[in-house]
């Protein structure tokens, strides 16, 4: 997992973490962000838009199952593969 | 019988986690019998508990009832943030409540939910919500006695 990419994704989630009252170090990288309660469907789409802007990539999950894209680790891998 | 109701932490004994997982399975079996559409997958209880662990006590909580040190019931919930168009309000979602059928005359359900609600209050939620199967009129009455009001009906169909 690219640590730099993961850190930047976590930064994009800063607003959500603040609303939830948790630290970035509390977030598990290998567990679904949905299952951890960090994102819902709306905030996840907002995250994807932010990721696309931040990393200048286009993400398409239409052929993927959620475990392939719903954790910090899996998102980091997708971004890394796209670049 | 010595009863203790408390929130569990990441440092619990493995036996406590395993028993909570077993009760999770029993709960979903109970709900499947009452019409739950999406049923628990094999190993789903382990996936659920694993997802709770990183933020246990921070954005989610599991409260367990122990009878003579053995887990006999649990309640679980998590903090949700409403969308921005609803003001990003902090909402407590009471996701699960289950008591072993052999211990259902000791008011443990109410004690478990009360303790979880206390945790939600400490976390500053503005509302506590939960979902109940429409075929479970007895469960709906339980929550109404606890001060919950019916709000809307969730519907679904297979495409």
Which helices and strands appear, and what pairs or packs with what?
The complex is a heterodimer of chains A (83) and B (159).
Chain A: H1 3-12, H2 14-20, H3 41-55, H4 72-82
Helix pairs in contact in A: 1-4
Chain B: E1 3-7, H1 14-33, H2 44-52, E2 60-67, E3 70-81, E4 90-99, H3 108-122, E5 127-129, H4 137-145
Helix pairs in contact in B: 1-2
What can you tell me about this protein's structure?
The complex is a heterodimer of chains A (83) and B (159). By secondary structure, chain A is mostly helical. Chain A has a single domain, classed as Non-ribosomal Peptide Synthetase Peptidyl Carrier Protein, Chain A, CATH 1.10.1200. Chain A has four helices and no strands. Chain A is globular, with a radius of gyration of 12 Å. In chain A, 29% of the residues are buried. The mean pLDDT of chain A is 92. Chain B is of the alpha+beta class and 159 residues long. In chain B, β2 and β3 form a beta hairpin. In chain B, α1 packs across α2. The longest helix of chain B has 20 residues. The radius of gyration of chain B is 16 Å and the shape is globular. At the A-B interface, α2 of A face α2 and β3 of B.
* DSSP summary: helix tally of chain B: 4
Backbone structural class of chain B: alpha+beta
Strand segment tally of chain B: 5
N-end to C-end Cα span of chain A: 14 Å
Pick out its properties.
heterodimer, A: 83 residues, mainly alpha, globular, B: 159 residues, alpha+beta, 5-stranded mixed β-sheet, 5 strands
């Amino acid at each position: 997992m690219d640590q730099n990419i993961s850190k930047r994704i976590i930064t994009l989630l800063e607003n959500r973490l603040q609303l939830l009252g948790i630290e970035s170090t509390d977030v598990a990288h290998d567990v679904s962000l949905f299952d951890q309660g960090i994102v819902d469907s709306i905030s996840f789409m907002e995250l994807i838009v932010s990721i696309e802007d931040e990393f200048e990539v286009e993400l398409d999950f239409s052929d993927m199952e959620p475990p392939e894209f719903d954790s910090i680790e899996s998102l980091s891998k997708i971004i890394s593969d796209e670049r | 019988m010595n009863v203790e109701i408390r929130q569990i932490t990441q440092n619990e004994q493995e036996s406590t986690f395993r028993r909570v997982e077993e009760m999770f399975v029993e709960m979903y079996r109970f709900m499947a019998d009452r019409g739950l559409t999406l049923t628990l997958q094999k190993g789903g209880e382990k996936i659920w508990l694993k997802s709770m662990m990183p933020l246990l006590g921070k954005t989610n909580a599991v409260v367990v009832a122990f009878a003579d040190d053995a887990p006999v019931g649990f309640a679980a919930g998590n903090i949700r943030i409403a969308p921005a168009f609803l003001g990003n309000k902090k909402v407590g979602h009471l996701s699960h409540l289950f008591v072993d059928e052999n211990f259902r005359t000791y008011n443990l359900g109410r004690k478990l939910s009360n303790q979880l609600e206390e945790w939600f209050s400490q976390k500053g939620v503005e509302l506590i919500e939960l979902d109940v199967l429409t075929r479970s009129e007895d469960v709906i009455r339980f929550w109404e006695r606890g001060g919950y009001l019916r709000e809307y009906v969730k519907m679904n169909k297979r495409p």
